[in-house]
Amino acid sequence: MGIAIAKLEAWMRDYYHKVDHDIGSSGVRDLSMAELRGVCGFEMSELDSMVLHDSEAFGGPGLRAALADRWTGGDVDPVMVTHGSSEAIYIVMHTLLEPGDEVIVVDPAYQQLYDIAGSRGCRITRWPLRADQGFSVDMDALRKLAANGPRMIVVNFPHNPTGASITRAEQDELIAIAAESGAWLVWDNAFGEMTYGTDPLPLPHDRYDKVISFGTLSKSYGLAGMRVGWCLAPPELLDEMAVLRDYIALYVSPVLEFFAEKAVRNADRIVALQHRHASGNLQLVRDWAARLPDLVRLTPPAGGVTTFVEFPGHPDVVRSCRRLAERHRVLLVPGECFGDDYRSYARLGFGGTTAELTAGLSYLEQVLREDSGTVTVR
Ligand SMILES: Cc1ncc(COP(=O)(O)O)c(C=O)c1O
Fold first, then answer.
1. Which among 7, 130, 313, 356 is most buried, taking Cβ atoms within 10 Å?
2. CA of residue 84 to ligand 1 center, whole Å
3. What average pLDDT score do residues 122-148 get?
4. What pLDDT, on a 0 to 100 scale, did the predictor assign at position 2?
């Protein structure tokens, strides 16, 4: 196979469905269908009149219009509905990139954001976040990297796994750098609606024409099982993307689109509910880390529901994460899934239920103490 194993997804395949306490995922608390109906105010009987006809390549009219009203001022032309944002990422990379193209990508990053390009023979240039400075961005470094005229600059803020974000001024600068170098700017907005202490950043589309953004119901809405995402891009690019899509899944099921439309039309209420829950959980994580300064280093996230915690001096984070899953049924993601430079880190997700977070943190503390030699394992 010419594509690297997606380490994070492989870890999830091993453990995600075998744990009781998920403190590793990047999504908020999953909603039940009853909760979704309650927040959005609809009845299942509304589905009875649905004829299970094909939907459309760019998305059914109802969902596309709902997304357009939320994201593009009502203009449906730049909107494509996809199976999660994963499908959008895959199609964009395959449509725009040729072997030898240079792609600059924020580092660390969700692997699909660079390894699809890697598998296409592109040159991947990393733009590292400054781990020693709260995972802040170095815009001067980006400007220098972009001087070679890359084909694409790929970013994701708020960022998975660190939860770091950028300011509006930095976003303006990022757009200016992309524009000066003529690169496509790929803005993965998976966590864009979930921020702490600042307003969500606006999408960059109205400041530069070569912008592609991704959105999803998987992260800030608690609807990961819906597998609905979207891509916003110039209509001519979406036309090209549809050519590849004809060989993949053609379109998203109208059944999913029915629920997704309800969710998008009620997005503010769903996100507000999830935000209240995530903010409370974040405080728990902060208090927990503050109690363990010798074992845990936490950079509080600006958005999303993950943080990249460091375990300074820890001998083997992967082994501890395996033991957490296999012995205590707790999911934590080793930093190594984001690259070898991050072996002393783990992604800690705080979007789940407060009960599983509390239990998961307690087991994590126990394992950290055992593995750092302050407690004997029996
Ligand atoms: C930054 C980022 N983008 C995209 C995705 C893909 O999510 P989905 O396909 O569920 O929309 C993920 C999933 O973890 C992610 O972290």
1. 356
2. 7
3. 97
4. 77
